[in-house]
Amino acid sequence: MRQLMEDGWIDLPLRRRTASATGLTGSSYEAWVEHPAMRHKVHYAQFEDPTRAILTLDDGRVLHVLLTGKPGTDISTLGRDGLPLPTIYLDIETPELAHMSPEELRARLQLLPDSMQWCSHWQDTELDAQALAQATEKAVQHFDAVPEGLVLPEGLNQTQRRETLLHLEVKRILEEQCRLKVPALEATVVVPTTRGRHLADRWSAPAQQLVLDKVWLEHRFGRLIPDVICHAHSSDGTTVYEPLLIEVTVTNIIDEERHERIRAAGQAALEIDFSRTGGRLTREELVTVVVEGLETKSWLHNPILENHRVTMLAALEARASVIAEQNARRERVLATPLEDIRQEYLNAVLELNDVRVMTDDDGRQLPHAIPLERAAKERLADAADKLTIHGYPEATDERLVGHTSILARILSCKHNRPVGYKLANVAGVLNAARQTKGRNRTFHSLVMIAFSVYEPDLKPSQRQWYDVWRQEVVDGIRANEQDFMRNTIFDRLLSLLFPEMAEALAKPWGKHVNDLRWDDGEQMFRRPFDTELKPAFFLERQPLVSKHDAPLIDTAPTDYWLKGRDLEAWKRANPSRAAAFPAPQKDSDQ
Length: 590
Description:
single chain; six-stranded mixed sheet; alpha+beta; 19 helices
């Protein structure tokens, strides 16, 4: 103590005061303030407290000692200003050094001010007030306390008061920033079909940055009072939400009833759910969450999304209806005897080929033949589809059913008259077949099998001509000329259609083997014959008409289009084709 008086200075330690504030959510916010350590000149000292010091011996050893004095008077003694006097305890007790004189001890001692501790400070009241103010401001910054000067509606509980604070801040941020990033849009639609299968479609649009024009807080919109309402649009103007409803949720989860009211309003509605943030938010963090963040946002309703969903659902349901009809048709076809379908197919081919030659002297089709040809094509498409269902997809091939094709030549031999050719006799058909060159000669042997099976009438000179042609084909096959080797792609179907030819078709002689061969002209390996099917284009465009359908009611046999009840019945039976098929021109009498 004498040293303090003699030195005349004391180093006072740092003074720290801590305070806490409880927020609206019950969370605690702490803050502390400090009065810095300072050196003061000692005017008067009274020994009342302990302290620590170090004592240095002659040999250099350093001892930590505790300076202890007797208790003084009450430490709560007030100064002239009415405040508690600052007090420092100084404890001194080292019996080992009792032999040293006071002067020697004083000379060797060095006080350790770091061990000093404030019991009270003349600025504690101000420091406590500052710490509490800072703790309260922390709560305000985290929207857990009502800022000074802000008056909230009466009757709100603590949770409602905090949510109101967030609503106000979100509105302020949107008004200030004039922009808002909204989540992506994604719709998936699934429609069940038969046999446990389903149809699915998906539409999506990426997240967007919207520009805001106007912002209202808790403004009534019909049966709703959204937390925030604004007008928003994309920068390119392709997306417009007028209005955009925004619901700010913390603990007030949007229940199904409220959600239904939002959907019923039919306007875009966005939820910002702060319960997903997982902790406290500062004002700066809230700006990021509201303006740029997507983790807390979700669409409660979006008319753009719903329009796409409805469109996709309608399209999938239409497809499912078509699939259901196709499956039902498939079951009916599979239950139909194959012999009936065979005859139906041959009749349609024969009818179509006969109609094709209904032309005038200039080769123009006669007017009355036009609707007949359309009807024949529909019946052929229907029969070919039935054969496809039974496992004969080649029934639609252009090389079989096209103009002056394989079936026309075989049927000419079978019926002993030109079929599909406007010629005088079968010899003319055979001559036309002989004129085909190159790879098309691969089917010459089919005509000759039909000729040998059905033996159409030929004059002696015609027969002599035919025998020469036949020998050319035989010689070509024996010489392994690939153009004469028969492509067997149609043998299986032809054996079904013409059972009389099946035995000859089954013989291995003259058939082509699908191996790779080097083509000198094209300088590449290729298969000598095309084994892929080539569906006839006109068949692909035809609607399917079953022979079991009801007879036409409002459509005459010479009409180019179905009419009235017949047209409506066809639309119901063929929804996908009806959507793609061109609408007929209305007749003047309709």
